[in-house]
Amino acid sequence: MQIATETAVVLAMMAFVAIIMARNELIVRRNAVDNAFAGIDTQLTKRYDLIPNLVTVVKQYAQHENETLRALGELRAQAMRSGLSTDDRVRLNNQIDRGLSGVLATSENYPQLRASENFQQLQRGLNEVEVQIAASRRAFNAAVNDFNNAVTQFPLSFVAGLTGFRPHAYFEATGESRQAMDTRAQLNS
Amino acid sequence: MSSQSDFNEFYEQAKRPIAESLEPARKRTLLAWYIIWPPAIIAAIFCFFGVPALTGNKFGMFAVLVPIALGNVFWLPIWKDYRSRYQKRLTAPLMQLYDPTLTYDPDGKVDLELFMASTLYANAQFSKQDYKGTDLVTGTLGKTAIRFSDLRVIDPLPEKNKGEVIFSGVFFVADFSKNFSGVTHVLPRASGRETSANLVKLEDPDFERAFVVHSTDQIESRYILTPALMRRILDFQTESKIAVSIAFANSNIFIAMHDAKTRLEPILFTSLLKPETVKGIWSNLDFMTGIVNELDLNTRIWTKQ
């Protein structure tokens, strides 16, 4: 009887330790997802910082584009508001993508603007941020994939169910966003 | 970089000096090779087996060194003379026509510091004497500075009394189109090599089957290895059939092409009067410099210009 009790206690302790270890593993992977999302955030902030400079430079040479520039500024202000859901942020950033591509496409009509050193530097900066955003998004999705595999595969799925871990949504690049990047690359070539 | 018509033009200009000067020199050098080396090899075999048997001294086999040393004494001045003519009359003008920015140093090699900066062989133990190379080519193609040479790096492993080849092949270094501060390694999966950096899992299954990627920065590795670049690296390896290890460090790309050759060393056993012989050198130069286009290193639409 005593042996049975001792065995049960040992087994319970082993199960407890296993659950703790599994939970820690899930936390490590969830932290990796959070870190990767912070990477996207940093790059989006860099892009927000570039927009006012772009607006100022374009305004100097292309006064007929005030409406487009104003819309871009408003989108930036909306995207920078706190408390937005991830979906809203993705939607707003896709609109910013389109807005930026629109401004850069219009620059074709203003040779002086295209020749301006400030504009060229901004264009390079935007391209850089765009590639960094794409890289951050891919790193985020890889971390999410790793986390989701853990949450949905036994035995970690069992612990995930007990401790309330749920699969995370991927950050998909929309067709519009990819098209925006292509347009920009063409404009620079 | 030049085209097939440029090569034809070059060959038309070069074939007369080749026929008048270089080809006779090659034939003389080849004759010297036949006179020196077969007897030296026969003598070496005799020394290896015969001397210990005749003298009863097992250390007699070291007499093998005598004919080999003698062969080298006669052979090396002849070879150096031919090598110098070959470089002056064929390699240097060919390279100038191919791309005037390219310079060629037959006795040069990629600097040891640069080789180490790649961090591809950071854990390897070897001294400066074990780091050997020839045929250094440097230049700037478009916006991209390049340099490559043949290299042979050996770990002498004195405790095991035998050398282990750390790297043998062509080592290619180019200025990369983007700035970055971390280190990313792309290693052939078949090699089984590991580095201390973190494993990076990428989305391209074909690329993942061929290579394993380690990096100090997950995001930066993806900033460098865009889906387009991954595809280009894969195509490059498939088409060239050369196993490559790649490092991205200090905003440079380092490509270690295992068991490859620059093929800029003088040709001895094939007639230089055959256009295809000279075309071979041209094609190899095309292949090496073509890496810049293959990997799209001249596209500078980001902050690095």
Question: Notable features of this structure?
Answer:
heterodimer, A: 189 residues, mainly alpha, 0% strand, B: 305 residues, alpha+beta, nine-stranded antiparallel beta sheet, 7 helices, 9 strands, 21% strand
Count of runs of 4 or more consecutive helical residues of chain B: 7
Distance from N terminus to C terminus of chain B (CA atoms, Å) equals: 21 Å
Q: Which class best fits the helix and strand makeup of chain A? A: mainly alpha
- What share of residues of chain B is helical? 40-55%
Please state roughly what percent of the residues of chain B sit in beta strands, choosing from under 5%, 5-15%, 15-25%, 25-35%, 35-45% or over 45%: 15-25%
Which residues of chain B form runs of ≥5 with pLDDT under 50? none
Give a short overview.
The complex is a heterodimer of chains A (189) and B (305). Chain A has 189 residues and is mainly alpha-helical. Chain A has helices at residues 2-61, 66-80, 86-106, 111-115, 117-152, 156-163, 175-188.
Can you walk through the features of this model?
Chain A is mainly α and 189 residues long. Chain A is built from 7 helices and no strands. Chain A has helices at residues 2-61, 66-80, 86-106, 111-115, 117-152, 156-163, 175-188. In chain A, α1 (2-61) packs antiparallel against α5 (117-152), α1 (2-61) crosses α6 and α5 (117-152) runs antiparallel to α7 (175-188). The longest helix of chain A is centred in the N-terminal third of the chain and has 60 residues, at 2-61. Chain B has 305 residues and is of the alpha+beta class. Helices cover 46% and strands 21% of the residues of chain B. In chain B, a hairpin with an 8-residue loop joins β3 (144-155) and β4. The model of chain B has no long low-confidence stretch (mean pLDDT 86). Classes of the chains: A mainly alpha (189), B alpha+beta (305). The A-B interface holds A 36, 39, 124-125, 127-128, 131-132, 134-136, 138-139, 141-143, 145-146, 185, 188-189 and B 178, 200-203, 218-220, 222-223, 226, 299, 301-303, 305.
